[in-house]
Design brief:
single chain, alpha+beta, Translation Initiation Factor IF3, 2 helices, 4 strands, about 30% strand
């Protein structure tokens, strides 16, 4: 049985668009592929922005929950993207 993966947390409550996504993007660049990130935000726009960011950036949105105005996202960092050859 393997140990549960650790989760890196970002508290972006009180921050407005685009700051929650920008903070997630910056931290995801520092994490290894497959690492988990939990983002908490209160910005209503994050409900649209975070899933869109994950899709366009190659990360997996594992779950999204909205409870009492706090949106919690669990994101798995996607694989490193290959850079196109010139």
């Amino acid at each position: 049985m393997s140990a549960p993966a650790s989760i890196t947390d970002i508290d972006a409550r009180g921050l407005l668009c685009p700051l929650p996504v920008l903070r997630a993007a910056r931290l995801l660049r520092e994490l290894s592929p497959g690492a988990l990130l939990r983002l908490r935000a209160t910005d209503p726009a994050s409900w649209i922005d975070v899933p869109h960011f994950c899709t366009t950036s190659g990360h997996d949105l594992i779950s999204a929950d909205d409870s009492d105005g706090i949106k919690t996202y669990l994101i798995r960092r996607g694989p490193d993207r290959a850079t196109p050859e010139d």
